[in-house]
Amino acid sequence: MSSTTQVSNTPKPSGITSVKLGHRKHVLAQIAELKQRTVHSLVVEAVDAYIAQMQAKMEYEAQAIRSFENYQQTGLHVTHDELQTWADSLTSDTPLEAPTCHK
After folding, report:
1. Which residues pair with 77 in a beta bridge?
2. Closest CA to 81 of 89, 73, 69
3. Per-residue confidence (pLDDT) for residue 42, from 0 to 100
4. Which of 65, 95, 100, 101 could be joined to 76 by an S-S link, Cβ 3.0–4.6 Å?
5. What is the pTM of this model?
6. Backbone angles phi, psi at 77, to 5 degrees
7. In angstroms, rounded to a whole number, what is the distance separating the alpha carbons of residues 24 and 44?
């Protein structure tokens, strides 16, 4: 084995997951029929949407944590009043420049 080859003991996912849908199965079947799609395609679409939503939420939260950590280190900030004044100006004929961070 070469030094760049890595062996993983983690089993590879089969791509098959069993989900007990209960009463949802009947509702999904009705929706699938109306949309001329399969229940499988609806479930995959829902899972993909959930994954995208959770990834976006986790990135948003991570950015918030990084921003707070940066504030703790630098003390740089914009006050609510400064931000509100700027936001209010965006619908006016003379929008203001975005406020700059300060201590």
Report:
1. 102
2. 89
3. 97
4. 101
5. 0.68
6. -160, 170
7. 15
Q: Which residues contact 75 (CB under 8 A, 6 or more apart)?
A: 103
54-99 per-position pLDDT tens digit: 999 999 999 999 999 999 999 999 999 999 999 999 999 999 999 9
CA distance 98 to 103: 16
Phi, psi of 12 (to 5 degrees): -80, 140
Residue 2: alpha-carbon gap to chain centroid = 39
Q: Give 102's strand partners.
A: 77
* pLDDT, tens digit (0-9, with 9 covering 90-100), for 46-56: 999 999 999 99
- The domains of the chain are located at 24-76
Mapped onto helix, strand or coil, the DSSP state of residue 77 is strand
